[in-house]
Amino acid sequence: xxxxxxxxxxxxxxxxxxxxxxxxxxxxxxxxxxxxxxxxxxxxxxxxxxxxxxxxxxxxxxxxxxxxxxxxxxxxxxxxxxxxxxxxxxxxxxxxxxxxxxxxxxxxxxxxxxxxxxxxxxxxxxxxxxxxxxxxxxxxxxxxxxxxxxxxxxxxxxxxxxxxxxxxxxxxxxxxxxxxxxxxxxxxxxxxxxxxxx
Length: 198
Fold this sequence. Notes:
It is built from eight helices and no strands. By secondary structure, it is an all-alpha fold. The termini are far apart.
């Protein structure tokens, strides 16, 4: 008979997994952004509105929480709940889905990506690749990340990503209004054929 407790990863291993995931997400997102001409302008243009501050603030708070968990796991133990494979495995699946969605979205967007609710002259509506099925895959990834980190990390401190998920919902509404104004019927038809997240 196998003792299930022996098979469970310790907290530090789980936190390192979350660090590896965050590094992979940063590499994918950052790599695609830096490969585009004019990336700094498009990134700065995203720094408007409450959604931006919720997203950036939530992600920064998550990184701070994760750092605290790594350097002093005993000080955050009170915020943890018992490890469960029933939560850990779905959490890992959500984290993997986030990376997949981010990669596929950047691959489909190409030069159309912007850090803002913004379109440039001559830009076409992207309806291919993952965008043929999901309207907002990058934003969906943030929601998957928030849920996946909480389930995988089994620590309430990772609720710090919730503001980022709220910011995403606000940003989606603003972006959809912009896309409707910019692309009209083309956006309306596309939106009817796709899901917001999954």
